[in-house]
Specification:
single chain; 457 residues; alpha/beta; Rossmann fold; Helicase, Ruva Protein, domain 3; 4 domains; 19 helices; 13% strand; elongated; disordered C terminus
């Protein structure tokens, strides 16, 4: 129960307010003078104060000043039977929440009090979220209170102290580089370089020269010697992002670095020895890539010494409010909050682009927002109008429905989605659907689903 202090030297008014507010469920204390109220403020905490302005001795402005000095978050509502515009302006300047003239209706005072306390509750909830972000629900810029993210957050410091290679898996936008940086920053290598390279952005020849460097004259345009990133990262860590995109011929050279700790620059005949911790990351299923002949199995086992999986945002929806609060602060919009309806839309959305997509949406909303509350109409259409999978289930009416056709459609959708999530690896797809491998093959054959293209034939 919130605690309210009622201050009025008129005993009948004091009693009316006490009875009214206790009926609303509040814990009410009465003071019959400004001096008595100030003494109570020095000894007790109150969530809200209702004080008359005109009182002998210490008046309502003295009570307001004392309340704000004791706790700036205390809400103060001023009431008076002899109010002037000057009094109202002065009260608001000194931090009063509202100013009410006597006589007032009971509903009027109820509305003011409940709105004021609701605003305070929201501020407190936001502060709790901020504290959670600052402490147990974050590690560097990795945020989450869901069980799988808490497990990840707790494992990162242990992984960091180990010197083994790490393979981070997760969908695009899920935060793989953030996890890699956290592992480096918490490791004994933290004072050395952390180097990141995206294997998908460079052609094979350029990727090789970036990783291993080259000697002057090694190829046209090589006018000087150049260090490779493995040399730059010596005694530190290197992140090989999108490792599944690395050409198969270059994978063999990477395997040699892992096995021997040595490599050669392009155009050189001398080995260079390095001590580098390799952190690889991918959004693909490397076991499926091995089956397709796109990735070396021996390299996979060398990289996958410590596997780390980052769950997609749609599987940890309880983290969305925390992340939203973080991105609001990042966009200098700490005072902005979501209405319950708008927050529900954000939580229900699928977020295929994961945390990166959420961050972009928050940035867009804040940029266009003209107030401090986000309403459903402020949410981008693709988020606001999203409907859960499966869509379009027909309503059961007196005309009836074709239940077999509906169930068949749902089953086909889930089969295709399972194959999509596992990159066509049928054993993994069967596990996701909680059915046997034999049952999966039977269903794929039944619906003529092409296991390689994931489409209906």
């Amino acid at each position: 129960m919130e605690k309210i202090l009622v201050v009025d030297d008129e005993k009948s008014m004091n009693e009316v307010l006490r009875i009214l507010l206790e009926a609303e469920g509040f814990n009410v204390t009465s003071a019959f003078s400004g001096k008595e109220a100030i003494n109570l403020l020095n000894a007790h905490h109150f969530d809200l104060i209702i004080t008359d302005i005109k009182m002998p001795g210490a008046d309502g402005f003295d009570v307001l000043k004392a309340a704000k000095e004791t706790d700036p978050e205390t809400i103060v509502v001023m009431i008076t039977a002899f109010g002037t515009n000057e009094d109202a302006i002065e009260a608001m300047k000194q931090g009063a929440y509202d100013y009410i003239n006597k006589p007032f209706k009971n509903d009027e005072i109820r509305i003011v009090i409940n709105r004021a306390l609701e605003k305070k509750r929201l501020r407190k909830e936001i502060e709790i979220l901020r504290e959670q972000i600052r402490t147990s629900y974050r590690l560097e810029n990795i945020i989450g209170k869901s069980p799988n993210m808490q497990a990840l957050l707790h494992s990162i410091p242990k992984i960091a102290q180990n010197n083994s290679n790490v393979l981070i898996t997760g969908e695009s936008g899920s935060g793989k580089e953030l996890v890699a940086r956290a592992i480096h920053n918490l490791s004994p290598r933290a004072k050395k370089r952390f180097v990141a390279i995206n294997c998908a952005t460079l052609p094979e020849g350029l990727l090789e020269s970036e990783l291993f460097g080259y000697m002057k004259g090694a190829f046209t345009g090589a006018s000087t010697n150049k260090e490779g990133l493995f040399e730059v990262a010596n005694e530190g860590s290197i992140l090989l992002d999108e490792i599944a995109e690395m050409p198969i011929t270059l994978q063999a050279k990477l395997l040699r670095v892992i096995e021997t700790g040595t490599f050669r620059r392009l155009g050189s005949t001398s080995d260079i020895t390095v001590d580098v911790r390799i952190i690889a990351a991918t959004n693909r299923n490397l076991k499926a890539e091995i089956e397709k002949g796109n990735f070396r199995e021996d390299l996979f086992y060398r990289l996958n010494v410590i596997p780390v999986h980052i769950p997609p945002l749609r599987e940890r929806k309880e983290d969305i409010p925390l992340l939203i609060e973080h991105f609001l602060r990042k966009n200098k919009a700490e005072r902005v909050r979501f209405s319950p309806e708008a927050m529900k839309m954000m939580i229900n959305y699928e977020w295929k682009g994961n945390v990166r997509e959420l961050e972009n949406v928050i940035e867009r909303i804040v940029l266009l927002l003209e107030r401090e509350i986000i309403l459903p109409e402020d949410i981008p259409p693709e988020v606001r109008d999203y409907r859960h999978f499966p869509q379009g289930l027909p309503e059961l009416t007196h005309q009836g429905v074709d239940l077999d056709a509906i169930l068949e459609s749902i089953e086909k959708n889930y089969l295709r989605r399972a194959l999509e999530l596992t990159s066509g690896v049928k054993t993994d797809a069967a596990r996701l659907l909680n059915i046997s491998f034999r049952s999966l093959r039977h269903r794929l054959s039944k619906y003529s689903i092409d296991e390689n293209s994931n489409e209906l034939s």
